[in-house]
Design a protein that fits this description.
Layout lengths: L1 E5 L4 E6 L2 E6 L2 E5 L6 E5 L2 E6 L6 E5 L2 E6 L2 E5 L3 E4 L2 H42 L1
Parallel strand pairs: 1-9
Antiparallel strand pairs: 1-2, 3-4, 3-6, 5-8, 6-7, 7-10, 8-9
């Protein structure tokens, strides 16, 4: 089956594989040729792809979506980083994804506070 991994800026991986393991909010999912059609959100995790020949491929995914249709698995993620060492991906890359997620949450909270403050002041001005 064909595995394609995309980010907003590039095609990270396009390869024929015999097995893919991804992780959604309910746990780990193994996908083999002939898998039932599926669309599922993905959590920050390590994708494992096993080609018919050669070494396994490991990609750290920053969440995303998996789409399985016939013998094609497509993964769309904000970021995807490949490594031969899954321990490295788990220790450093996923930690970096998590740190960025926390920074984005903090930025969103700060923006919302600013927006609410602006709305309050606007209402105060309207009341006179």
């Amino acid at each position: 089956m064909k595995l394609r991994v995309f980010t907003p800026t590039e095609i990270v991986l396009e390869e024929d594989v015999v097995h893919v393991t991804v992780e959604d909010p309910t746990g780990s999912i193994g996908i083999r040729p002939g898998h039932a059609p599926l669309v599922t959100p993905l959590v920050q995790s390590i994708l494992v792809a096993r080609p018919a020949e050669g070494r396994q491929r490991y990609l750290a995914l920053d969440g995303g979506v998996a789409i399985v249709n016939r013998d094609v698995v497509e993964i769309v993620s904000r970021q995807a980083v490949e490594s031969d060492d899954p321990a490295h991906l788990e220790d450093s890359v996923l930690a970096e994804f998590e740190r960025r997620t926390e920074e984005e949450k903090s930025s969103f909270v700060a923006f919302e506070k600013m927006r609410l403050s602006f709305m309050r002041r606007l209402l105060e001005l309207e009341k006179g």
